[in-house]
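so my prof wants the structure for this chain in the tokens format not the other one, which i didnt know existed until like an hour ago. anyway here's the sequence
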Amino acid sequence: MAEDLKSILSAPNQMSHRYLRAIIGFTISVIDTKNVKEVLWLLTDDIIVDLGFEDCVVYLLDEARGVLVQEAAYGPKKAGPTQILAPIEVRLGEGITGRCAVEQQPILIKDVSKDASYIVDDAARMSELAVPIISGGRTIGVIDSEHSTPNFYTDQHLATLRALSAIITTKHESASALRDLRESESRLRHLANHDSLCGLPNRYHFLTQLQLAAERFKEGESTHLCVMTLGLDRFKLINDSYGHAIGDQLIVQVSRRMKRLLPKEVLLARLGGDEFAVLAENQNAANPGALCEQLLNALSTRVSLVSADVRISGSIGVAEATAKACSAGELMKLADRAMYKAKAVGKGCFVMSSTLQTVSELSDLNMESAIAAALKNEDFEVYLQPIVTLEDCKTVGFEALVRWAHAQVGVIRPDYFIDFAERSGQIRDIDLYMIRKVSDVLDALADAGHSNMTISVNISASLLSRADWLDVVGKDVFEKGLYIEITERAMVADVSEASKILKTLQDRGSKIYVDDFGTGYSSLSYLDRLPFDVIKIDRSFVDSVTESEKSLSLIKLLVSLAHTMGVDLVAEGIEQPEQLQILKELGVRYGQGYLFARPMPVKDAFQHLSKKPSS
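here's what i got, hopefully its the right format
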């Protein structure tokens, strides 16, 4: 740049003054600019006019594509503030501008008519001067000027553009250094606030945001605030059985599942180990029970890892902010206490902290007497999940699912009280309770004009081992459209007796569903010994059908098997449009899953039937 200034000073005084004024003016102007493109427009708008140029275009290099892109202009090419008229792109080595970029040397053409590489942009001119903008040994752009007069450009013009180019380079390097510094600071902030394994916000970030949310609630700036702490059940057992690498994979998969289903405004964090936390405000916190149900449903399916498929669940504690309890510390303490009570009551459920003061220690809860009381008081509720035709997503039936609405503990999921009920012998009473309740629902559906609807009910091995319950239930129940679902665990109890009972059910008008098919390979050996009408493909295979050749091959095999045996297929756990498309292409006719609808109370199921299906 010093040599350029010497060249400028050698010009006549008036010219020398003009060129120096341009350089000094540009230097002062760029001090407060925010980015390189703003610098380029300062050059073309305020500086070039002092040099007596007719036009000037500044190019920046798009390294990814290897082309020079017009970014700022003076003269006919300027269409308005920071806008270029019909901008063009020039390949490296193309024309005088492209040569300048490749050779990294100024090019002064006194008469372009004698230069074969000259490219006409908006209009043909007689002379051209191109000066490269170089940073760190790399070309980042070119200042290109043309004039209608031959021999217009002088060595002083060249020296001035080189000096201006050097100023642009300095600004570019300063901006790059500042950007790198900010990116480094951003990375450090991210590392300080996020979990290194799964990328979720960490405990520090969560508690910071909770403190701010608690202050907003206290000041009346938010209407609702709730905190949830969630612990994975039996995570230590999985870690010990499969190793810490598998445990880490599980944490990552679970994190992705939960983040995918929660609203963007809801904060999900990993506190450490197998514990997570959720922070919700305003409308998102108005119904924490619904959020808990979504999280528990997401955790209730199998997780496919590199060397193992594991089934997990979670226990959730919920604390809602009130006028008396709204500090971050209080809310975390209440949520933690509620989570440990959820684990004590049987896992796979959520507990509201507001109930803890009205019950004794939940670890002392007598599950057997509680189930007996729930049956007597009819605290078990029927939830319905639609079964749809995959071709048009039309609801053709429902699966009935049991929910225990415990008056003090909250909603307890069936995964764990069903296991206890099987051990205590109470599962038979729950099965018959559900059959009776579903029979009433079918009557209500018929009265509402939906007599074609069917509902399938899961029954246990207890009802497949003795036929005396068939006389208690009666024959007409199954003619209404009450279908039966059985699992492999139920089938293996007593195959001979189970076969007789299932055949009787078919004779009475019921259809038999084989549930969760594919999770136990011995299922295949029972298909030719037991009567059935429908195979339900386990959700673990649907989960991975878009990425697992094994799952894809199994479903293809089941489609072929079902066709040969003359039975239908229902795919469980469809959550993504891609899964739906693949299953349709494979020939699966029916399905259910969150893509269509979640399990819902009976009254909501009636409203669901009035809606038009969406595919």
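also thought this was worth mentioning. Residues 2-182 form a domain with the Beta-Lactamase fold (CATH 3.30.450.40).
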